[in-house]
Amino acid sequence: MCQFFMIHPMTPQPRLIHRTAEILQRAGVIVYPTDTAYALGCRMGEAEAVNRIRRIRNLSERHNFTLACRDLSDIGTYAKVENNAFRLLKAHTPGPYTFILPATSEVPRRLQHPRRKTIGIRVPDCAIASAIFAEIGEPLMSTTLLLPGDDLPLTDPELMRERVGAHVDLVIDGGAGGLELSTVIDLTGEMPSVIRRGAGDAAVFEA
Question: Are β-strands 39-43 and 30-32 bridged in parallel, bridged antiparallel, or unpaired?
Answer without folding.
Answer: antiparallel
